[in-house]
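Students often ask what a holo structure prediction actually looks like on paper. The answer is less mysterious than it sounds. You provide the chain, you provide the ligand, and the output is a string of discrete structure tokens encoding the 3D arrangement of the protein together with manganese (II) ion.
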Amino acid sequence: MLIIMRTNATPEQVSRVVARLEKNDLQAHLSRGEERTVIGVVGDIRHLIPDRFARLPGVERIMSISRPYKLASREFIPKNSSFPLDGVTIGGEGIVLIAGPCSVESRSQLLETAHAVREAGAHALRGGAFKPRTSPYAFQGLGEKGLELLAEAREVTGLPIVTEVMSPEQVPLVASYADVLQIGARSMQNFPLLHAAGKSQRVVLLKRGPSATIDELLMAAEYILSHGNRRVILCERGIRTFTRTTRNTTDINAIPALKARTHLPVILDPSHSTGHWEYVAPVARAGIAAGADGLIIEVHNNPEDAFSDGGQSLKPERFAELVRQVRVIATAVGRHVTQPRTAMNPRRENAVTSHVDAIR
Ligand code: PEP
Ligand code: MN
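The corresponding structure tokens follow.
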């Protein structure tokens, strides 16, 4: 349910509505637009009498949200939401590029790759320290040692780091190193993990499950948003279909379909969606043409020797070429690739400065 406040509603009137909702065990999520404040009501509203709220001072009208996800919906926040990640805006006009190895393997591998992707224009460094592997015998990641190496790479390149967290218990540890918590495709419906990531208030990169529908992805995002954490990036990373020609099938349709339904930023991972380095650039270009707000790309200084996903990892020079191509496609669709931060600034805390505020 949405409570639309009048354009001239006072902060006291807004607070009064919020207090009344909280008294009824409901959550109030505020969206402060340029003209008016909209209150998203979340919780069990079956016994709520909308008329009682409609009569409160400052309230213009009550609307229901037709979608099963509420806070993620464009009905709640019609404009694209955007937020800063270490000085770079995610979800704005500019396109952002996250790049780096599938797994953190060693200091030299990570630092060499990190410097190369930064040179090429990446805005953030990816790399898994805790790896979800199909086989329990495959390389599982370096764990905390990997997080330490990522922190060192951030220190020397200035790039914020994106890394996967696999369980709710791991969230405090990973959040103490990472700028962005990645929730992997296999964990998209790990509900305790979604709750913990929401509570952490870190930026979350949520990947679509290999067999998840668009609505299921948005419902997963809703878990994170329900904790007042508005900084969620959605990622299409390919779905499981009958074809075995590619590792997954890139659901390009998901990009405009998500953008139509949600205000959250949407990025594409053409590395996992194709599984072949040769297809990464063409599909990345298609993603940008389809309206993605960014890309996450696997890049390795020496893909032949990679511990995981070498076959889909780009060599640094190929990534640099891809960045040049993406710039051209971005311009063709009226956008641009965000200027990378050149200064090696020390890390800053990420503040929410989007046009919306969370009040819980
Ligand atoms: C990854 O990013 O390395 C990864 C494991 O991705 P996904 O969860 O999309 O398979
Ligand atoms: Mn990978």
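The longest helix spans residues 316-332.
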